[in-house]
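A.,

Following up on our hallway conversation. Structure tokens first:
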């Protein structure tokens, strides 16, 4: 059980870090002159300069899409390192695991609702969408504090519905579209979090 819980925690932390990094990079990308992305790009620009030097070129740039993916990966590594270091203290680790569930569920909707023109949301739909987010957050709270422990199958269905809805709103044109990454990674990180919380609850409970 202890080894399984350790593996589940690793899976949760990796998927959660990738998910958070994706949301942060997305939000900052749509800002004019993001200072955060400017600082994040510095090590990548140095790496591009080294590639240009090795290839005997005046400059090298992989393209905006690949550059964004590299920033996403770099930030994900930074996030997971911070989570692992802070998680060495048991109270901090417990707080991070609990807070992760709310971030996973509400992260994508809150980020995307900041750009309603890009999402192309019909007028009057925002209150209903926020109601859906509130309901899902309430379910996370109930699951987290053992008010309602849903079977994994039902939890997975709820995650697919939630992220399928928001994935459709942000432009999901099919399972192989770029926007589908948001929904798929959200489902994976949410399910990994649920498994991690369930195993941690079992390991912390006294033996019968």
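Then the amino acids I'd put at each of the 208 positions:
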């Amino acid at each position: 059980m202890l080894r399984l819980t350790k593996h589940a925690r690793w899976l949760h932390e990796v998927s959660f870090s990738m998910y958070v990094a994706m949301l942060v990079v997305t939000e900052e990308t749509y800002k004019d002159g993001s200072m955060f992305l400017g600082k994040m790009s510095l090590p990548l620009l140095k790496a591009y300069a080294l590639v240009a030097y090795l290839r005997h070129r005046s400059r090298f740039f992989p393209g905006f899409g690949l550059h964004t993916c590299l920033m996403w990966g770099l930030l994900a590594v930074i996030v997971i390192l911070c989570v692992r270091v802070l998680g060495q203290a048991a109270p901090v680790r417990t707080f991070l695991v609990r807070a992760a569930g709310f971030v996973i569920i509400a992260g994508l909707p809150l980020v995307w609702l900041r750009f309603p023109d890009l999402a192309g949301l019909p007028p009057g739909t925002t209150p209903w969408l926020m109601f859906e987010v509130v309901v899902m957050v309430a379910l996370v709270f109930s699951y987290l504090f053992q008010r309602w422990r849903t079977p994994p199958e039902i939890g997975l269905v709820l995650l697919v519905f939630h992220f399928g809805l928001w994935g459709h709103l942000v432009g999901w044109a099919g399972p192989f579209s770029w926007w589908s990454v948001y929904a798929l990674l959200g489902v994976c990180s949410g399910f990994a979090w649920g498994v991690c919380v369930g195993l941690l609850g079992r390991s912390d409970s006294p033996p019968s």
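Residues 2-204 form one domain. Curious whether your intuition agrees with the design.

B.
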